């Protein structure tokens, strides 16, 4: 396989890994190993949360550079595991281009959960967190319903919202509004547990943990960017909930 195409496929794998939740050090190491396995004499990779830049030098001394811009994330550890397996296979066996292209396409098109299963899973998680934080059976059932509805709503909001901050703000607003509406109808009085249980679906926990891992591993820039992003998203989550309670009067109960 030509070294330029090796770089293209290595960058594609690195992009998918970063989107799926991998740390930047893992992404950089994977791209480096793949390129070197196919004959690159020198590989320089720089990755942060939103970009990957790679330059390689072939056996003739020519330098090739590619850049990937990362605009969204979707944590998927199953896909990440398959990408890791593919990268190890490429380093060990150096398969032909057709096989690499086919396997990357299969991993990209891999279906994890159907929309129905995703809604049910999110609803169960929201209900479990509601109970965990002290809610009763009624609160758990309401948390289940709101969690499923918010997951359905998120698919449409993602198309309309300009960035993840506005997206999280609106979702938390609808979560708090639904919980407060349930309280106003007399179904429950402890709407706070419902709000907390559903917000746990939206908290950027993976990004926060990855930021700490990146900083501990020496990738300070990437770690700080991830940490700042996690803090800002958490602020917007709190802001959306507060606005809903303030508008509907729940903040003063």
List the helices and strands and how they pair.
Elements: H1 3-20, H2 24-37, E1 42-48, E2 51-57, E3 63-69, H3 77-93, H4 97-108, H5 115-132, H6 137-160, H7 164-184, H8 191-199, H9 205-216, H10 220-248
Antiparallel strand pairs: 1-2, 2-3
Helix pairs in contact: 1-2, 1-3, 1-4, 2-3, 3-4, 5-6, 5-8, 6-7, 6-8, 7-8, 7-10, 9-10
Rg of Cα set: 22 Å
What structural category arises from helix and sheet content?
mainly alpha
Binned strand content? 5-15%
Total count of helical runs of at least 4 residues: 10
Largest sheet: 3 strands, antiparallel
Give helix % range.
Answer: 55-70%
Shape by Cα distribution: elongated
Distance between the termini: 67 Å
Q: Any low-confidence stretches, pLDDT <50, length ≥5?
A: none
- Write down the overall mean pLDDT: 87
Spatial order of the strands in the main sheet? 1-2-3
Element order, helices and strands? HHEEEHHHHHHHH
* Assembly state (oligomeric): single chain
Number of strands: 3
Overview of the structural elements:
The chain has 253 residues and is mostly helical. 69% of the residues lie in helices and 8% in strands. It has ten helices and three strands. A three-stranded antiparallel β-sheet has the order 1-2-3. A hairpin with a 5-residue loop joins strand 2 (51-57) and strand 3 (63-69). The longest helix has 29 residues, at 220-248. The model has no long low-confidence stretch (mean pLDDT 87).
